[in-house]
Amino acid sequence: MVNARPGGGGVIETLFVTRIYRAELAGAPGRRLVAALERACRSIAEDDGAGRRWCSDNAYPGYTSYASLDDLPGRFPEFADLVAVLDRHAAAFAEVLEMDLEGRAIILDNIWINVLEPGGFHCGHIHPHGVLSGTVYVAVPKGGGAIRFEDPRLAMMMAAPLRRGDAAADNRPFHTVAPKPGTVLLWESWLRHEVPLNRSDEDRISVSFNYRWG
């Protein structure tokens, strides 16, 4: 991609673009699915004793089903409906990324619930066993729902100066997305990301997932 820039008379080529895919569970069907997912997430968080014990043992700030339930779509119709939607988005994103799948498909590998309580946060991390990763936002309290992505070149910038406060989004080392209930985000699994502190008085509920190359 070539972009002409004024000022020096030269031409800027944009290379190695990092893409984030965003969609919304919109309209009446989307709103019904988000409402059903919220009810299911809250009920599962209350009933999943093994998951709550894992969270307590590992100082997880709230509840996650990551270590206790690996078959949500088989147990709950709301999650089966969600996966049907996510499959379409994952396939579309893989096409945008021009992935050569060699006749195979992008397949859901795992999906789990996150209930992040007030004061909770997730440190920066990647999903090393996935191809595409993402999150569906179910309950997003004001001040508690953002996600922040890190430029994958950040560790190699060494003596580079900081970017100006008014720098364009594609020149900044971090990019924050503020979702709403029903927002679907996908990114390539190597992209480091974090969830800042939940500064609200309510739980932030989301459903995260990974897709692998089948």
Distance between the termini: 30 Å
Shape: globular
CATH topology: Jelly Rolls
Alpha-beta content class: alpha+beta
Beta-strand residue percentage: 25-35%
Parts with pLDDT < 50 across at least 5 consecutive residues: none
Folded structure, characterized:
It contains four helices and twelve strands, in the order E-E-E-H-H-E-H-H-E-E-E-E-E-E-E-E. With about 210 residues, it is α+β, with helices and mostly antiparallel strands. A six-stranded antiparallel beta sheet has the order 3-10-7-12-5-4. The radius of gyration is 19 Å and the shape is globular. It starts with a strand and ends with a strand. The mean pLDDT is about 95.
Give the tags:
alpha+beta, Jelly Rolls, six-stranded antiparallel β-sheet, four-stranded antiparallel β-sheet, 4 helices, globular
Write a brief caption for the model.
By secondary structure, the protein is α+β, with helices and mostly antiparallel strands. Helix content is 25%, strand content 30%.
Write the layout of secondary structure elements.
Layout lengths: L1 E3 L6 E3 L6 E5 L2 H21 L1 H9 L4 E3 L7 H4 L1 H20 L9 E11 L5 E4 L6 E8 L7 E4 L23 E4 L5 E6 L4 E3 L8 E10 L1
Antiparallel strand pairs: 1-2, 3-10, 4-5, 5-12, 6-11, 7-10, 7-12, 8-9, 8-11
Helix pairs in contact: 1-4
